[in-house]
Amino acid sequence: MTISDLPPRQGYLMPIGGAEDKKAQRVILKRFVQLSGGANARITVIPLASESPAERGRQYCDLFSEMGVQSVDCIQLRNRYEANMPATAALLDNATGIFMTGGDQVKLVSLIGGTLVASKMLSRFKKGATVAGTSAGASAMSLHMIAFGRSGAKPSQRMVQFAPGLGLTDDLIIDQHFRQRDRTGRLMTAVAFNPALIGVGVDEDTALVIAPDGSAEVIGSGTVTVVDGRNMEYTDIHSVKRHYPITVLGMNVQTFGSGTKLASLTLDEPVALPSLKFG
Amino acid sequence: MTISDLPPRQGYLMPIGGAEDKKAQRVILKRFVQLSGGANARITVIPLASESPAERGRQYCDLFSEMGVQSVDCIQLRNRYEANMPATAALLDNATGIFMTGGDQVKLVSLIGGTLVASKMLSRFKKGATVAGTSAGASAMSLHMIAFGRSGAKPSQRMVQFAPGLGLTDDLIIDQHFRQRDRTGRLMTAVAFNPALIGVGVDEDTALVIAPDGSAEVIGSGTVTVVDGRNMEYTDIHSVKRHYPITVLGMNVQTFGSGTKLASLTLDEPVALPSLKFG
After folding, report:
1. Are B118 and B80 in contact (CB under 8 A)?
2. Which residue in A7, A45, A257, A279 is deepest, having the highest Cβ count within 10 Å?
3. Is B20 considered catalytic here?
4. pTM
């Protein structure tokens, strides 16, 4: 697959909940490689969220090489100056698949947000490259990114901290390690702030494969939770102070198991399984 | 001015820092009325951020009527269900000027975010209506909205809390009561999270008048502070914990007095005075 073979439209987006299987079936990583062109895939790894980017970058590069892709590159940089260097961003020029590792999404975004590397990644995605991100790399995809927060099942006002993310998806607030770290409360809180957005909580070793047409599929060993506040009638989030619980009325929380296909996961239509009709 | 008289492009955006003069010269409110069509202006007031929307709505409606506009409407509603009623949103159908009052931006956004009222306001703006907002109404304009935070001159990690805002501006993070409430630190912190955005801090009784072409003018009795992190080299915001101060290197903080004209306030170009050329 070369640049000119990419479809003239947005690529697949694959938020992964962290801790994806790297040794056994590799269901998620295989899907990423396949959607990036299989044996013709040209993968660029962005390990900048990690505490040890060199080590983490090597790990994924070795993995993808072993899986038989055409080429693997890795973006390493120390500061925003380097993130603005054309030579650095050029490593994305031919990418048909881009993979963001885990770590700390604030580290990643404060390092590359607004730089050439971020804009090149976005433009490759808009031109058809597949973008996957695991853990912090999944969170960073959101325009309205969950920067950090607290665990718990019940929403409360200060449970979640937003920051501006990389904007690969405008509509979805992505959360990860979802069931393992008990993050239902913080995702509901996030959506309550502005129910114009849809919350997507991805469990570990699980991915949501979002197609360019807005349809989506759950793969891996866990589940994906969708928090939809568009029909929410009421919240008192503005009047509750600090860590006290908030009230939310009419928020829709759905959990989808592996293999589930969603007909649509965009703000334009209700979240629905292909076999269910709404409205 | 009727709908068909509106220019086929985005309108003027007027974030106001709160406490604008309502009795003496009314410099800011007059400019809003003028940009909305003067004697032909059709104003719609959105007082939903206020603690007492009925009272606050009446206050501004009386003010604008007194200033001789063609018509004034006021949107009053109690819940998101009403914010989705076509009859409510219809009050924006003919608006040439939309005014959002102060109060609590989280209250406003959690009430109308993603509803018909919000999308109608955005579409009127895209078609040329002037949108002004004071205090909370100014903050709510941002796509990445400052929900709340703490005062102080020095940036620190948990100083600012974002939430998804109404999105009248994608590029600017608007803050208000800026000098009066000592908010330099929180705006610098906000920009450090993702330097792809520009921070705009507006003092009380001051407004930034942003023209459709991206040029801008400071009016009123105070100043506007612009925090530009696009050339920021480094921040440790990801590694600093809680309320400890963060390091930011190369962030550009500029203050502009009343009467200043800026050639451009978009991400596409450096922030510049018309008479200064940049590299």
Report:
1. no
2. A45
3. no
4. 0.90
ipTM summary value: 0.84
What are the tens digits of pLDDT across the range A31-50? 999 999 999 999 999 999 99
For residue B266, give the amino acid letter: T
Contact B192 A79 (CB under 8 A): no
Tokens of B34: 């003028």
Using one digit for the tens of pLDDT, what is the confidence trace for A37-83? 999 999 999 999 999 999 999 999 999 999 999 999 999 999 999 99
Query: Given the DSSP bridges, would you call strands B13-16 and A261-262 parallel, antiparallel or unpaired?
Result: unpaired
Burial of B129 (0-12, 13-18, 19+ CB in 10 A): buried
- Across the interface, do A193 and B109 touch by the CB < 8 Å criterion? yes
H, E, C per residue of B29-86: HHHHHHHCCHHHCEEEEECCCCCCHHHHHHHHHHHHHHCCCCEEEECCCCCHHHHCCH
> Best mutation site among A50, A51, A80, A145 for testing chain B: the one with the most B CBs within 10 Å?
A80
Chain A with chain B: Cβ pairs closer than 8 A: 107
- Cβ contacts (< 8 Å) between A143 and chain B: which residues? 143
Question: Exposed (0-12), middle (13-18) or buried (19+): which is A279, by Cβ within 10 Å?
Answer: exposed
How far away is chain A from the Cα of B52, in angstroms, using its nearest Cα? 14
Query: How close does chain A come to B221, measured CA to CA in Å?
Result: 30
Report chain A's C-alpha Rg in angstroms.
18
